[in-house]
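Review box. Two proteins, two foldings.
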Amino acid sequence: MQIGFNLPVSGPMAAPATMAKVAQLGESLGFSYLTLTDHIALPDTSTPGYPYSESGAFYSPDPGHRMEQLTATAWVAAKTAKIRLVLAVLVVPYRPAVATSKMLTTIDVLSDGRLTVGIGAGWLKPELEALSHTPFAERGAVTDEYIDAFRAIWTQERPVFHGKYTDIEGLLVDPKPVQKPHPPIWVGGETGPSMRRAARVGDAWYPIGTNSQHMLDTRPRLEAGIARMRKLTEAAGRDPSAMGIVYRIKRHGYEAPPASDGNRRLFTGSIQTTIDDIKALEAMGVTAMDFDFEGRDAAKAMDEMHQFKDQVLGNL
């Protein structure tokens, strides 16, 4: 089981000295990976609309104050030595395919093969319309095609790719990634199209449990989601046992009423229930999970990371 944490790239903790300290602390405490999220131009975040909380509000304070994901990942790579760097997730339609593939390769090379490319199609229409030259309604098709283009560029000596949104032939796109055949791809999203995308191209499925429209917030719900993912992977002609399952946890260790299915929500309650949930998810086939220590106070967040190492990781 790999355990990661979310590096704050937004809000009050998104400052160079804090980001470096938190990344280096996580590495020294033995976390397997850190994650970086992706937004570029948010609308007024006081208006509810975030799909991963019941209220529709972002969990992190001041989410509009934010570092760009790929630039920040390259910078964090230079501040660390061994911890994996996970994009959680790259909103694929925001950036053109050929340029993005080069940026990702550059990060993989400069980090000596520590990049994991988490991907998603995106959900925030005003942001996508401000950034992308492709229609919001086609974001799923764009994501599928761009990922195929990435893989062609990463693995072919002389890349050839002809699609609706991307066309490349006769160009040199070197170097290739350090990791072969390419950096791992973790496919985010809880909808049917997202899960089918994971089944087709993912090294792992990477859901968040609190999507208000597709809840995976209790053991029975997550177990059912994993079973569905296995069936979709088999239907895609791939070995379902080879599909990793990575679970993203936005909040943990808080008191909450039962979920709408009557069961306890995952990672609510005590330190012991957090330990129990980690072990239960591992038994279900979850291969990695990451936790969020973000907030307004960097010292408090780093203290929570120390406590998590001692009280949780030390008792697994």
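Next protein.
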Amino acid sequence: MTIREVEEALHVTRANVRFYEKEGLIAPKRNPINDYRDYSTKDVETLQRILYLRSLEVSIEDIRKLTQGKKELSEVLGERREELRRQEMQTREAALMCEKLLGGQKCTFWDFPMEEGGEQNRSVLLRDTLTKLGMFWDQLVVWGFLALQLLYTVIVFPMLPAQIPVTWNGAAVTEYGGKGMFLVYVALSIFLMLAVKKILYARLVGGLRCYLEELGAMVSVGMIGYGFSLQVYTVLSLQGVLVGIDAFLMGCIICYLLVIALIVLIYRHYKKGAAA
């Protein structure tokens, strides 16, 4: 294809095509007859992918690393998503500060109120810290809790008898099964953890989507907690626990919701302090 045909096919300017050639992202061969650039189907497909990534504001350097196989697409898009989320949170905070400064009154550059003693800078630093904590919430909490369940499994599994309780009627055991069921609970936790994000991606819309990582983390921990709770109750059942399975699981849910509520309150308290 000629450069004109590339322009028409991809709706891109000649200057853009030349730019990506200069950056070494595409390297069309020369037509031996007229020495014009001859763009292959692969060149056009590569350019199309580059243009799509650029529409997401992925940097040229990251695109170069992708084409060279030095970075995975999931890594690049994950970094870009975190950057966009950070920018979105900073934009919301800036809007709140604008509302606070306006206060429903007209003012000039010289008479709007300024906070003394570097309070504004401290607020910005605190807000940025909270943003970073929010981005790492998923990795730290979810994988940390799963690691705790795996550690518990490794420690307890060798001590289990060949047959363990698998179903209960209240606190009374109604069925026993092989102790391999203890490992099934771990598999259940991992399956639910991986499935929950796909469901959230499909269902969450609008303003909730910007809290996808936090919501995904909370629900994922809940899913892991379900399998973990079954493991803990199995061990307690072998010791003759008097609490029924339903009451035990309900107690776990209540404790989990209380912990989540405490985390949210702490977060909102510091968030409010950062915006004040």
